[in-house]
Amino acid sequence: MTESITRLNFARTEAARPALDGRAALRFGIALILIWFGYMKFLPYEAEGVAGLAQTYWLFGWMYPLVGVASASIVIGVLEITGGILIALGGRFTWAGLIGALMGVATFVVTLSFFFSAPGIVQDGHGFPALGSTGQFLAKDIGLLAICVFLALDARARLNRP
After folding, report:
1. What global pTM score does this model have?
2. CB-based contacts of 9, cutoff 8 Å, min separation 6
3. Ramachandran angles phi, psi of 122, nearest 5°
4. Which of 13, 115, 150, 151 could form an S-S bond across to 101 if both were Cys, CB 3.0 to 4.6 Å?
5. Contact partners, residue 73, CB within 8 Å, separation at least 6
6. C-alpha to C-alpha distance for 48 and 122, rounded to whole angstroms
C-alpha cells in the first residue's frame, strides 16, 4: 500500500513539472519552421512562388483578385507565424499549444492537398513514386503534419489531466 501511494505521489509530482523532453524539441522545431516560413511570405520572391501554386487553387484563388499577390501571401504568413508562436507557447500554456498545433495540422493538410493538383508532383517520364521537384518539396510536409498531430494530441491529453 505504501509503495503504491509513493508511486502515485511521485507520478503526480513529475506530471506537475514542465517536461523538457522530446516534446520540447518537437515544439521548438516546428515553431521555428512555421515562424520562418511565415516570415518568408512577406518577401516578394516567396509571394510570387506561392502565387504560382495557390493562385489557381480553390482554397486560396479567391484572395488573389481581391487583395493581390503580396497581400495574399502576407495573410498566409500571418497565419503561419501565429501558429508557430502558439505552438512555442504550448509548453507553458496548453490551450495555446493545442490551437497552434491544430493550425499547423490545417497548414500541412492544405499544403499536402496540392499533391492532387499541382504540376511537377511526379517526375516527367516516370510514374509514382518518382517525385518531381514540387513533389519533393511537398513530401517533407508529411513529417511536419505528423509533428503537429502529435503536439495536438499531447496538448489534448495535458488538458484532460486531473
Report:
1. 0.81
2. none
3. -105, 140
4. 151
5. 41, 42, 46, 47, 50, 51
6. 22
Question: Shortest CA distance to 101 belongs to which of 84, 116, 115?
Answer: 84
Amino acid at 140: K
Q: What is the per-residue pLDDT for 109?
A: 95
C-alpha cell at 89: 507557447
User: Please, are residues 121 and 113 in contact by the beta-carbon 8 Å criterion?
Assistant: no
The secondary structure element, H or E, covering residue 35 is helix 22-40
Q: Nearest CA to 76 among 93, 53, 99?
A: 53
Quick: pLDDT tens for 19-74.
568 899 999 999 999 999 999 999 999 999 989 888 888 888 899 999 999 999 99
3-class SS letters over 50-92: HHHHHCCCCCCCCHHHHHHHHHHHHHHHHHHHHHHHHHHHCCC
Percentage of the residues of the chain whose pLDDT score is greater than 70:
88
AA identity, residue 29:
G
